[in-house]
UniProtKB/TrEMBL annotation:
Superkingdom of the source species: Bacteria
Listed GO MF terms: glycosyltransferase activity
Name of this protein: Glycosyltransferase family 4 protein
Occurrences of domain Glycosyltransferase subfamily 4-like N-terminal (ranges): 14-170
Gene3D superfamilies: Glycogen Phosphorylase B
Alphabetical UniProt keywords: Glycosyltransferase, Transferase
Enzyme Commission number, as recorded: 2.4.-.-
């Protein structure tokens, strides 16, 4: 099968959509499909055309005001069709969907972002009318959480929940690396380390984890926060007020650097207010870390309560602290092994790619 994926984010850009499109495309290529990706070109150092892990990558600059980006993308798609001859076009962002009008080739759309949920919460006739117009275009409507699959109006396309995935083989725990990193962070062998790999923005809820740290009873717990964003100053101030030097902020890191830190950790937390099947959560599970997470979006699909971690309400510091206290009192190693098993058996990218291709076949 020949697939053309259209996205506004692709490596080296970091983020959930970027990781999803790259890993999905790579897994499809491994299964014998031909995948091309059209994405944004940010700098002249990025090639306009390249091969990446068997994926044919095309990049383009967006010019002018934002509302014209979709028009430019659609023109580029039209120009690529005679070259690629795709059987299906798969759009991974709302912006390219706005101007999409390609005929005779089935269109799949993955509803990734919390921006959609924010639009729903704001409401208003105009916003809902625009969403209804956009969602009438795809023949196949996919989402990485059941919440993102819901629409407040009927659409004719087939709707299907397909979660994010993970390549568990990349996250095997390394005992030597664990000792080295923990020593560099001044973490004693009898101390526990909670890792948070999140952008410090409202939807990720890290401020509520900072507030929850006041109610965590174990004095041997330390926190490692990897990520940056507009809430960083506030999150740091609250964390350090309650934890002092028991919290470390490393700022933004490249993905390959983040992977190393999972070996040093004992469990991870997803305090999100909005979330799909979190890729960072799946990575933590693949690294044999139990998860504490909020009951939002796709997080309950990740965590098997009382076996791989614990769930709690969002925006509830005391409830979050209680879940953290529970994971600290469980057999963390056993929970970690169960988390790794669940990630490997249910969320491997090869399985996700196979589910996606099967979904494509329903509209071809």
């Amino acid at each position: 099968m020949k697939v053309l994926m259209v996205t506004t984010d692709f490596p080296p850009t970091v983020g959930g959509i970027s990781a999803h499109v790259y890993e999905l495309a790579k897994a499809m290529v491994s299964a014998g499909h031909h995948v091309s990706v059209l994405s944004r070109r940010h700098t002249t150092s990025e090639a306009e055309r390249e091969e990446m892990d068997g994926i044919s990558v095309y990049r383009m600059f967006y010019r002018g005001p934002g509302f014209l980006y979709g028009l430019q993308i659609n023109r580029k798609v039209a120009a690529l069709i005679p070259v690629i001859k795709p059987d299906i076009i798969h759009i991974h962002a709302m912006r390219p969907l706005e101007w999409s009008n390609i005929k005779d080739i089935p269109l799949a759309y993955t509803n990734h972002t919390s921006g959609y949920l924010k639009r729903l919460r704001k409401g208003g006739f105009r916003r809902l009318w625009l969403l209804k117009r956009l969602f009438a275009k795809p023949a196949l409507f996919l989402a990485p959480s059941r919440e993102l699959l819901e629409t407040p109006f009927a659409i004719s396309s087939e709707k299907l929940f397909i979660p994010n995935g993970v390549d568990a083989s990349r996250y095997a725990r390394n005992s030597q690396l664990r000792e080295k990193i923990r020593a560099s962070l001044s973490i004693a062998p009898d101390e526990r380390l909670c890792i948070i790999t999140r952008r410090l923005v409202w939807k990720n809820g890290v401020i509520f984890l900072a507030r929850a740290s006041e109610f965590v009873t174990n004095p041997k717990l330390k926190f490692l926060v990897i990520g940056d964003g507009p809430e960083r100053q506030q999150v740091e101030e609250v964390f350090k007020h309650h934890c002092g030097d028991r919290v470390t902020f490393l700022g933004s890191k490249l993905h390959e650097e983040i992977i190393q830190y999972y070996s040093a950790a004992d469990f991870s937390v997803l305090p999100s207010l909005m979330e799909a099947t979190s890729i960072s959560g799946l990575e933590a599970m693949a690294a044999s870390l139990p998860l504490v997470g909020t009951r939002v979006g796709g997080i309950p699909d990740l965590i098997e309560e009382g076996a791989t971690g614990f769930l709690c309400a969002d925006q509830d510091p005391k409830g979050l602290a209680d879940a953290i206290n529970r994971v600290l009192n469980c057999d963390i190693d056993a929970f970690g092994r169960a988390a790794n098993k669940r990630a490997t058996e249910h969320f491997d990218w090869a399985q996700i790619a196979s589910q996606t291709v099967t979904a494509y076949e329903t509209v071809l």
